[in-house]
Amino acid sequence: MSSLSAHASGDPAAPSFFGLGRAALAERFLERGEPAYRAGQLFSWVYRKRQRGADGMTDLPGALRRDLSRYCDLALPPVASLHASPDGRTHKFVLELSDGARVECVAMRTPRRLTFCISSQVGCALKCSFCATGLMGLRRNLRPEEIVAQVVIMGDHTAWSDERFNLVFMGMGEPLANYRAVVDAIRILHDARGLNLGARRLTVSTSGLAPQIRQLAEEDLAVGLALSLHATTDALRDELVPVNRRWPLDVVLAAARDYGRRSGRRVTLEYTLLAGVNDRPEDAERLGAIARDLPSKVNLIPYNPVPGLPYLRPSPEAVEAFALSLYPRAPAVMVRQTLGGEIWAACGQLGGLSAGA
Ligand code: SAH
Ligand code: SF4
Q1: Which neighbouring-strand residues pair with 102?
Q2: CA gap 323, 337 in Å, rounded
Q3: 3-state secondary structure of 109
Q4: Under a CB-based contact definition with an 8 Å cutoff, are residues 226 and 206 in contact?
Q5: From residue 68, how far is each of 25, 42, 150, 238 by CA, in Å?
């Protein structure tokens, strides 16, 4: 373990608070002779009252406050850099993890809502041909505490007042390739004594790992599922999203359909528009049929160009034409507003600048 991971006032052997579920924390208290309800008290202080140190936790006995670092480590990864878009609505956070790895997450404010976009891995192994994170390759999986910490840090920064925010796993990495840590983090975020983040406000985006989509359906979490489709034929999807060679369209769409039934929620199909590649009228026609059949809502993402990659964003007219031809066919279509392009924080651009670091 590097020296960076030892919190100044903490016990390097104590696990991070942010990776512990309430039951696991209660267990730690019990093992050390404290009542189990301390876990609920601590959850409330840290997640609801945003207390970042033991000193202010006034309903804990003084001795426990002094010794809290024996039970768990409250340290959060430092923010190595923070980038704001010119209009101040989007902030990208670069966090420095204990081993020096850097991970990025983004807070976006629209008039209607606050959305946090978080990462699940440092880099990604799946190498979608248009994605900046894919260019990095996979450095490592994030641990649950490193996933939860992103939410806490962005929450502190944006000082949300009513805890109403949406959370999307659309940053760096493939969440379902780091399945256990992602599900553990979701359960911690869900905890009613903690952030109490409802499943309706949480979306996991996947490039299409069919077995894990089925496994997620079994968890009874009912979080939203977004499938990164991007192509309507196996030939093109094999090229754009190479994991399609393992789980082709019919397999992944069947898993998504079952997920939708099981969760009672309509699956989102993400479709990044690449000029001249997947934005032709016949693509819209096939996409409409797939969307209707699932059923699903379609989220069109105009491509965010990545230097060194050959793809281009279609013109606004071409995006509109594609959306218009889809409207009568698909049950719901949305064109994703591109936020944060100026600070290299838009979809698929995370990690691009630090790829060579
Ligand atoms: N790994 C997950 C989630 C992260 S990316 C996944 O692939 O689903 C979130 C979305 O942005 C995905 O649909 C992804 O395919 C898309 N994306 C990646 N790079 C992009 C880019 N440069 N421009 C637009 N969308 C991109
Ligand atoms: Fe990985 Fe998603 Fe990027 Fe594909 S689009 S390389 S799965 S992060």
Answers
A1: 96
A2: 13
A3: strand
A4: yes
A5: 12, 10, 22, 51
In a structure prediction context, what are the per-residue pLDDT tens digits for the chain, which is 357 residues long? 333 333 444 445 799 999 999 999 999 999 999 999 999 999 999 999 999 999 999 999 999 999 999 999 999 999 999 998 888 888 999 999 999 999 999 998 877 788 999 999 999 999 999 999 998 899 999 999 999 999 999 999 876 555 578 999 999 999 999 999 999 999 999 999 999 999 999 999 999 999 999 999 999 899 999 999 999 999 999 999 999 999 999 999 999 999 999 999 999 999 999 999 999 999 999 999 999 999 899 999 999 999 999 999 999 999 999 999 998 887 788 887 665 555 555 555 655 443 332
Nearest to 150 by CA among 118, 172, 186, 107: 118
Answer whether 17-70 and 79-343 agree in fold: no
CATH of segment(s) 17-70: 1.10.150.530
Give domain limits for the chain: 17-70, 79-343
Q: pTM above 0.90? A: yes
Catalytic residue among 72, 104, 124, 128: 104
Give the Cα separation of 271 and 306 in Å (integer).
17
Q: Is any ligand 1 atom within 6 A of the Cβ of residue 128?
A: yes
Query: Any idea which architecture 79-343 has in CATH?
Result: Alpha-Beta Barrel (3.20)
**Calpha distance 252→240 (Å, rounded):** 15
CB of 131 within 6 A of ligand 2: the answer is yes
The one catalytic residue in 117, 124, 128, 347 is 347
With a CB cutoff of 8 Å and minimum separation 6, the contacts of 10 are 69, 73, 74, 75
Count of H-run helices and E-run strands, the chain: 11, 12
Distance, in Å, from the CA atom of 93 to the CA atom of 75, rounded to the nearest integer, reads 17
Residue 104 known to be catalytic: yes
- Ligand 2 pocket check for 351: Cβ under 6 Å: no
* Cα 357 to Cα 345: distance, rounded to the nearest angstrom: 17
**Are 174 and 140 spatial neighbours (Cβ–Cβ below 8 Å)?**
no
User: Which residue is it, tokens 């020096």?
Assistant: 100
Nearest to 48 by CA among 145, 150, 162: 162
